[in-house]
Predict the structure.
Amino acid sequence: MCGQCGCEQGAPFTPEPTRIVLQRNLLERNEQQALHNRIHFEQHGLLAVNLVSAPGSGKTAFLEQLARQWPRPPIGVIVGDLATDNDAQRLKSAGARSVQIQTGDLCHLEADLVARAFDQLETRGMDLLMIENVGNLVCPTAFALGEHLRIALISVTEGEDKPLKYPALFRSVDAVLINKIDLEEVVGFDRRAALANLRDTAPQAEVFAISARSGAGVEAVMAWLQDEQRN
Amino acid sequence: MCGQCGCEQGAPFTPEPTRIVLQRNLLERNEQQALHNRIHFEQHGLLAVNLVSAPGSGKTAFLEQLARQWPRPPIGVIVGDLATDNDAQRLKSAGARSVQIQTGDLCHLEADLVARAFDQLETRGMDLLMIENVGNLVCPTAFALGEHLRIALISVTEGEDKPLKYPALFRSVDAVLINKIDLEEVVGFDRRAALANLRDTAPQAEVFAISARSGAGVEAVMAWLQDEQRN
């Protein structure tokens, strides 16, 4: 019953057990494929990184910089979008070997999609595989792809509170890149507040401030990735 | 089989019929609740609007402006986030009546969540209900909430290609707000290209350029909403 007009306002909410069980099965299936992917990446001598951000935060622009600056080119990029192969084309122009996954309606990458894209990637002479997830701060969180490292990218134009609003993702990452720092002053980004929010939500994560547009800060991210390769 | 090293690279992909059927059941259930919501909103004399954007595009900032400028205050806002009630607090400070939905892991609002939040909203003297969805350009698309109008908000910092990359959402909306136009020059946003992409993907949609920060352009959106109320 609606408290205001007394009309019958929908049935009372009940949990949906079928939905939960199915979700668990999907995740288990994905987890198995992710483990296989990881072994496969290692057989090919690759460090694999799952890069997650909101739409338009600058994942592709960052990867273009990485493709240009990485000391042992080329890097490989598997890139997911609902539609278009714009990003794969941009990355090829920047010198990466790139395979586009078009997910249709799917809001995140899954391990089997990555496995099939990886089959199309020429890995000879390559030591770094970046996987650019679909632009989404929620759904990619639960789906391992076989990555060694997971990175979240946020941009200063999005405000300081994203780690608080999307805690599950930020708890799951190894590093956070704060992008578009060339716009920090003009948008009035409060970096101290953002770092405090990251310390609360993602104390495990390395934090890097970068500008994918100018390339500032990308060197420090590369040094960290190279350290991780050695370990 | 992997084409490169000959290892067994995962099982061949097969569609998952259970998943598809379940999804359809969920959507049908949601559709029924959405129809009920819509009748309920009309009984209360409300125009209801579902507002969708990526994280950090400025949905809440736009709604703060709307709450301040709307000629017949207060407006009602039901706002969805995975965590925190930051947005509901901000909106109350701007003069709106606001109810926060914390979705936990859920990446979009559903009609039954909105129905329960609506029960907590005092609607007396109110003629506009805004529903701020979870920041996500994919998952909200398939879930009607009972709204009369659906609006997508994008910001100039996200680039020009979002309509091409998230076509299902843009095909489903009645209007698109291009936000943060005060940053248009500094980020080098190509408005002509963005409008061409919108014409291709969302020819049905009204398009408004706004700055939620300065309030520029919000008046035109309000005039359109008031027209829709009269129809």
Notes: Chain A touches chain B through 62 residues (CB under 8 Å). Residues 1-5, 9-15 of chain A have pLDDT under 50 and may be disordered. The longest strand of chain A covers residues 47-53. Chain A has one domain: 17-230.
